[in-house]
Structures
1.
Amino acid sequence: MFYQMDILLQRFLEHVRNTGLFCESDKILLAVSGGIDSVVMTDLFAKAGFNFGIAHCNFQLRGTDSDSDEEFVGYLAKKNQVTIHKITFDTQAYAKEHKLSIEEAARELRYNFFDKTAREHSYRYVATAHHNNDAIETFFINLIRGTGIAGLRGIPQKNGNIVRPLLPFSRQEIFEYASRNQLPYHEDYTNSETVFLRNKIRIGLIPLLKEISPNIEQTMRHNMAHIADAEQIFRNSIDEKRQQLFRHSDGMIFVAKSQIRKLLPCNTYMFELLRDFGFNAPTVNDLLLSLDNTGKCFLSATHTIVVDRHDIVIKNNSNEKSIEYQIPEGTEKIHNPITLIFKELNTAYTETPQSDKNTITADADKLQYPLTLRKWQPSDRFRPFGMKGTRKVSDFFKDNHLSLFEKAKKWLLCNADGKIIWIVGMRMDDFFRVDKHTKKTIEIFFTNNTL
């Protein structure tokens, strides 16, 4: 028995060293539920002499069983003389509030907790107890739900600061290790409930595959390793295509529609190019069908894509429209978010020339401080210089043939009472013009050419 245990521990150590998963001196936070997988991981870390602490989440989903798990993990931490970090969540309330499934809510909660704990207590990595069977189940879950090549590699051994040191081991090997070493653990009864897709695959599909191919676990491990290698080659090709197609300007990305139409296979290329911006396959397909619809918008949680005349334009969503920059009286120059120079003149003019769109001359007595620099809103109106009536700013932009992203880059200089003084770099409001009653003027220069 000891010889078998020693081999398993040796395999564990060799895997950590050969893959460079982490250094033996690194401080590691172990995600421990109290189940057999995380208990075995804890035992291996302890026997290997690694520097580690334990993190445990009580999701309050199984009544007293959840509290019993928490108590048991506390016992493990005390037994191994390591620090424990624990937290209790109202998972059902969180899932309802954020419109998530219980599984999604629990995952989000625990990984946020792991990340916060690791940062606050200087853990280099967070280790989870996923093993080879988990990776196989993930492969089939992704296959059933639909996925790209990345979803078929199973579970990566390392993802940011998350490491999975048990991936080389099967569920059976972990069970045998726990039995040989007489390790106590808590069994989660929900693991046998087939309401969850993962359980259906583990209980129904995997045994059937083992009847067909007794070595299916080893075969799948090799398959996923090959797919991971193929994905790396694929990813390199996508990166090269991204370098060719993406043009960066003013914080936005432009992709020529003529180049998109030349891509073969177009849907696959565009999905891979846009997936990092939060766009899924159906949205990418709709985008490709809308390349001739100038002005069409597509939104993800983080980005906006607009179909412009010759390009699609990708912009990072931000709260930029809600940001306002105040300019106190007496300011001579600002550089953020754009460069404006203010020059007061104790002279009067009978007329206000506006031959230079980047310079205005205004009646200084009509300005109320602090001035505000902000983005335009759909309800904004102003009286363009030289006109009697008012116009919506959005209509003024349309008259000047500005694209959606050109509009988004425009700034409004406003009075303290909210009245628009100047659409910077375009037109001032006629109210602020210099006339026969003007006693003092102010010149404002726009010197930033990145509008």
Note: The mean pLDDT is 89.
2.
Amino acid sequence: MPVNPADSPVLGALYGTDAMRAAFGEDAYLQKMLDVEAALARAQARLGIIPADAASSITKAARADSLDRAALAAATRNTGYPVVGLVNQLSKLAGEDAGRWTHWGATTQDIMDSALVLQIRDGLALIEADLRATIAGFAALAAQHRATVMAGRTHLQHALPVTFGYKVAVWVNPLITALERLDQLRPRVLRLGFGGAAGTLASLGDQGLPVARELARELDLIEADIPWHVARDGIAEVACWLGVLCGSLSKIGTDVMLLMQTELAEVAEPHVPKRGGSSTMPQKRNPIACEYILAQARGVHALVPQMLSAMAHDLERGTGPWQAEALALPQAFLLTHGAVAQARFLSEGLQVDAARMRANLDATHGMIMGEAVMMRLAPILGRAEAHHKVNDACDAVRAEGITLAAALSRIPAIAARLDAAAVAAMTDPSSYLGSAHAFTDRVVARARAVQQSQG
């Protein structure tokens, strides 16, 4: 019975994805280890180290569904690793003549590390696909709402006008950067792990480097400069990349959740009948996607330190740190993909209420334009006096419920210099957006370039 909710048949529907569970599940791991064993046999056969018939038989026998799981579990419990039992079974399945050539010159860590890298490659591909779709969805939303003016908020208070398109562009830009980082980290991560008993490939003599080269080619992995079993920077970098990506997604989830509050109601998660409902309050539409972005991101952030601490391997073979990775990295991949999937759901159907944004923008009767008015009056009255007059006008707005424009127009020093139309223009939120449009356009163009590069 699963202990972690992300792995359970019922609660697992809320965490992660079935695709990532398949990529990092035990079936996949066993098959990847068998794939490495089979690739090793083929590489060595090409070099004339083992018979070609043996490599063919080993490859045919390397099927996870042929393994005796109970026997493998017993062997794993006894030795502390699954590879010894797995190789014994593979050798028997391949037949007596071929079986004696299995695992030739390799060690347990070679098989497990290389299998893990193959899983990482599959996991990154799954995340990348949904991340690209998320970027496309948010970029389209940013372009659509390029001119939708709303209240910008700092410290949860009205600050200055922004556009919703600008806000979405702020969300999506780090996701584009995450794709760039992914391209950069792949060569540092997708490397063959192959070094033999102590990392020197001594068991293969002068054939060590040729075998490593052919094995890397078989698995479509990069041949490492030097075996990296006790240098886990690549694996740790993947975990950190997952953590940073989840941090960027949690910003989006937090913003959407805040904007969904009844008192704001500026956006809403895509509507699916009864999604986010309450067992007792039929009116509820809770921010479920946002909640599970945040929950899964926090889970990943708790796992990243475990991966970093597991870098402290002792000498040429670690005694514990390496094993701790298996408790953290698969879950980090699973939860990250779950967070990305929820973000994609938001990006492709977020409901935007522009009218409500405008109503909230006007809720302070124009006071959100306080800085704008002060800066425009400063050349006329002087900055200090302008600040003083606008402050007085804002006090009147609060006390009397009138608009900022009305309060300004009855100040003699302002009325003598500006007519009602000029004051109205000065307090129009759409006139004080700075470079919001330009910033949005830059990010949308960057997102489109990323999509085109994919093709």
Note: The longest strand covers residues 157-163.
